[in-house]
Design brief:
Length: 149
């Protein structure tokens, strides 16, 4: 992908994070930082046949706090949910629950770029739980996208 395309994608993602309906109002420079991190992750996923299915979803939470999001997933599709958080974030986790509230995927490793792979058995609204496990200075800002192929 050419440099200007990457720059354009990052700028578009920043605008979406700052004004998107699914995104909280993420202040600059955090919106820009999150957009750049999502754009890097998206480049790798697109090269592997994925396309963005939903997002970005974003918000700010404190240490040991979380948020819950609902997203439509289709049975049998291959999904990757990729999260990023800003530089003050030390550990950020994602969990995906099926339409019945059962855990079907999670990334709870000690890192700040969680990636969850799921292939739902049923079509419907699934829940994505985010948890800011370690944040140096609240609120820490996060974003995630849902990709499918």
């Amino acid at each position: 992908m050419t440099s200007w395309v990457k720059t354009a994608l990052a700028a578009l993602a920043a605008l979406t994070l700052a004004a998107g309906s699914a995104a909280a109002q993420v202040p600059d420079p955090y919106a820009r930082e999150l957009a750049q991190r999502l754009a890097r992750a998206e480049t790798v996923l697109v090269e592997n046949g994925y396309a963005r299915a939903a997002g970005p979803f974003a918000g700010g939470v404190g240490n040991r706090e979380g948020r819950r999001f609902s997203v439509m997933l289709r049975a049998g599709r291959d999904y990757r949910i990729v999260g990023v958080c800003e530089s003050r974030c030390r550990d950020f986790d994602l969990r995906v629950l099926d339409i019945d509230g059962r855990l079907i995927g999670e990334d709870v490793m000690e890192d700040n770029v969680p990636v969850v792979h799921v292939r739902p058995r049923a079509t419907g609204r699934h829940t994505i739980d985010v948890e800011m496990v370690r944040c140096a200075s609240a609120p820490c800002w996060f974003a995630f996208n849902v990709y499918s192929r």
